[in-house]
Amino acid sequence: MKIDITNQAGGVKAFLSGFSTEELEAKIEACQSGNCDCACDPALMQKIEGIELTTVEGGSMLSITGDVNADTLAPMMKECLFGEKQ
Q: According to the lineage, what is the superkingdom (predicted)?
């Protein structure tokens, strides 16, 4: 399982391997609705304008638009997906 997160214009892009698209979609929906079991920061979640998940060769690509950056999102995403503080 691997997560590579980089900044892009208007948000961040993350390549995730080792997770099924269905698993990621369930996590995203839970976090967006405020029902996640992660340590999501509600203030940060409000800065997210959109999330797009696509399946690509070797994993999934997650594009997050809004007033967010990779340095802030990476630790939260890793803790949520791996279940531990990074």
A: Bacteria
Exposed / middle / buried, residue 59 (Cβ in 10 Å: 0-12, 13-18, 19+): buried
pTM beyond 0.85, yes or no: no
Topology, domain 2-82:
Gyrase A; domain 2 (3.30.1360)
Q: Give the span between the Cα atoms of 27 and 37, in whole angstroms.
A: 9
Task: Kindly report, residue by residue over 1-57, the tens digit of the pLDDT.
Answer: 888 999 999 999 999 999 888 888 888 888 878 777 777 777 888 899 999 999 999
Query: Coil, helix or strand for 38?
Result: coil
Q: Indicate the SS3 state at residue 9.
A: coil
